[in-house]
Amino acid sequence: MLHFDPVHGLLPKDALPAASLHSAGAAPSPGAHMRGPHPATGAGATLEFANNQMIFSEGDEATHFYKVVSGRVRLCKMRFDGRRQIVDLLIPGDIFGFECGKEFTLTAEAIGRTVLERYPARQIERMGEERLEVRRQLTAMLRSNLSAVQNHMMMLGRETARERVAAFLALLAGRFGITECGILELGMGRQDIADYVGLALETVCRELSTLQHQDLIEILDHRRVSISDVGALQSISEGQP
User: At a CB cut-off of 8 Å and minimum separation 6, what does 106 contact?
Assistant: First the structure.
């Protein structure tokens, strides 16, 4: 997902605020806390979600879109056998929920305490019709989203579990960033990682331990790792010895 302000500087004060572009309809799930309209627009609402709380479900009517303010969001799809496949991981600034049809094709869930801004989908649809620059930036955003999907598919196509896990860490390091000390905030547990890379939980834990024994990473706790060489992880993900 794209992390940028798609309409900054283009909107009047009573229009959609910069950086809010993703249609995720459905009323807030039970327990979501609505704190009121966005102070700059009077149109959006701020919602708070607890860890693992559903934001919207596959099949819900797509009447709204969301922007991540804080926390993280996973987009996932349930398989026929009951297993979950995580399709994307979203961080603050990301926008999600645009649909070609009238219903959501994925389920969105909060990872940790998460705050979102929610806006009616018709706002961006109207702006796209009226403003050429908005249409151009929406197109750029959709292209970026397609690139992210392609990267995920390439990761799932890696031949070995070691390549997939290394690709996952390299991908997150580039997307989420690491500290000067090389610390990567995963922001998710091992099961989420397993569902994202398409491996069993035990396999993910084993491969992380192997990378640690090779001094490529250091597991600090269940949600943080220290990476000593991102380039080496990238090389492993590409099948290099």
Answer: 58, 75, 76, 77, 87
DSSP summary character for residue 40: T
Dist CA 77 CA 83 (whole Å)? 9
pLDDT digits (tens, 9 = 90+) for 82-120: 788 898 888 888 888 887 788 999 999 999 999 999 988
Burial of 207 (0-12, 13-18, 19+ CB in 10 A): buried
User: pTM for this one?
Assistant: 0.71
> Does the structure show a pLDDT above 70 at 167?
yes
User: Which of the listed CATH numbers 1.20.1560.10, 3.90.25.10, 2.60.120.10, 3.30.990.10 matches domain 33-146?
Assistant: 2.60.120.10
Q: Which CATH class is domain 157-237?
A: mainly alpha
At 10 the pLDDT is 34
What are the helix (H) ranges across 9-159?
121-130, 132-156
Average pLDDT over residues 41-70: 88
CA–CA gap between residue 34 and residue 12 (Å, rounded): 24
Cα radius of gyration (the chain): 19
Query: Using one digit for the tens of pLDDT, what is the confidence trace for 119-163?
Result: 888 776 676 666 777 667 667 766 766 666 666 666 666 679 999
CA-to-CA distance for 41 and 131, rounded, in angstroms? Answer: 18
Quickly state the pLDDT bin for 238 (edges 50, 70, 90).
confident
Angle at 37 between CA 33 and CA 38, to 5 degrees: 110
Where do the CATH 1.10.10.10 domains begin and end in the chain? 157-237
- Give bridge partners of residue 152 from the DSSP assignment: none
